[in-house]
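Dig into what follows:

_____
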Amino acid sequence: MKLENKIVLITGSTSWIGESTAKLFAKEGAKVIINWKTKTKQGYRIVSEIETAGGQALFIQANVVDQDDVDNMFKKIINQFGTIDILINNAWVARGKTFLETTYQDWLNEFNDNFFGTVLCSQYAAKIMLKNKCGVILNTSSIRWILHTGREGIMPYSAAKAAVSNFTTTLAKELAPYIRVNAVAPGFTYTPYYDTLTEEIKKNFIEKTYTKRFIKPEEIAEAFLYLATANSITGEILIVDGGFTLKDG
């Protein structure tokens, strides 16, 4: 197993990409901490499913943009497992509004949910990892951070994910050589969110993707597993988008 006995915290992991990643990492031998700020029932369900499959997991309810919650979450992890080896900052949310409709609070909310939680958790984890002189931090970015793919209707989200990507590459420099820092930038990954869209919009997304299909959450999980075990890679943003961001020649 690639991650035997590794202690892994995955924020925002009670559904979709986070859930798939938690289950894959547990299958590879990791002891996985599931996290969400509200979805306790889903969190305990995932723990039960992982344990039934022979893995180890723990659910911790915490809001990753609340400093006290973050401190308490990491203290629980240290009390139970003694350390943390891998942090995956996956908590995120996207809210749709045109630029002229957005308020200052909208921008703050989007950066809180998509960027500042990544900063707070990374800071706490890095202190532990530096003492151990090893560790991995992985972030969930998005194709929307790339210059020509930001979308007007979710401008604050796009900007926040650009911040995550810049933070990833810069943090990789600061924490080298002991901690590797990378990110995955998913493309159109099918989640229940897409069920709220019209067939025309979904068809348009697929037509713009060279593989002509939606990406599965399990495929994003595989990208995280690759970065977690690729010991020569740091400061990279791995784009998993079926070719959507390719430019025609």
Q: What stands out?
A: The CA atoms of residues 109 and 156 lie 9 Å apart. The chain has a mean pLDDT of 93.
